[in-house]
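Memo to structure team: turn this sequence into structure tokens by end of day. - J.P.
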Amino acid sequence: MSNRRHGLIGVVLSGLMVAGPAAYAAPPQPAAKPADPVANIAYLALTQKRIWPQSFLDQPPDDDGVQGARLALADNATTGRFIHQAYHLEEALEPDADAVVAAFRKLYAQGYRAFVTDVPADLLLRLADLPEAKDSTLLDATTTDDALRGEQCRRNVLHLLPSRAMLADALMQYLAVKNWRTILLVAGPEAGDKLYADALRKSARKFRIKIAADKPWTYDPGARRTDTGHYAIGAEVARFTQGLSYDVLVVADEGDNFGDDLGYRATDPRPVMGTQGLVPAAWARPFEQWGATQLQARFLKQANRWMTERDYGAWMAVRALGEAATRGGSVEGAAMTAYLRNPDFELAAFKGARLSFRSWDGQLRQPVLLADARSLVSVSPQPGFLHETSELDTLGPDQPETTCHPK
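Reply from structure team:
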């Protein structure tokens, strides 16, 4: 080998020795990906004492409502991963009204502007009238009060569950379609019973259903679980309904105190509808149409129980915010809640229709189920009830009829 060749090899080797560490250094790392923007949603609830129903078969769950919000959060996150949006649900379950107000103020100070509420009507109004609430939106997930959609409505409140007026209209439409034109109305003594009965009376006039008799229920069965308790109840219901001519017995018993006693015990064989029997509702256990089976199954897997109306209302509220963030392209609180009122906003909620909020009272327009404990019987609006813009607006007060005029 020539000296010249030895010299070239030496130069190359010395070059490798000098450049070696740099040549084998780790490649530069890409910059860390920025975290996805987060939609912050607050769930604000008053932990109300659940009243035991007439039967021990259906025990009121301790986590009623909030489980629906949690499921919707998971649903939002599934979509959010594809469009780089994240979601956070801050739960504030408080023991009294003052604690709920304090929690609202604390969350507002932390930047929350979208609040899903599970509180009674009076507390909802108290929250809506707080100075901090003026640039927030309260998504009322659980009330059915007509007054909150009427003379006591607020600009910063949206309502997810159907109002009593919508429930009553759903039932009266069905009676009209079946040509069952005469009813016996039986109302309980509680405040909710009276409000439900008022909605039924108004709806009966609207759809030309005759009320053959309007009777309050005052009987106290006392020891209903004694060996002869069922005999006493049967005798009282037979006496109560004797001598009346009607097609359907319609009951207003929101407290679930006596309505189930009326079935199969009247003097004449007549179906029971209203708060018991065939019930108009936002959600029902036997509902399986339009993909509802998969929502029922996912909820059962998560909560180890069936979805209730309160769960469904909370699920719709959180899902509505997720849909607003997706379609509006922003997770910022004010932007999300503003898009809820956009005419282009739509929510798919397993009911065979695209749901949206009414501009005049903040109510989510939606179909209403008619179901008993084991079967979905029908869905309102019924065929033949037409509307110039949306058949869903045949349920509840239409825009010309509204008493909602917020200041």
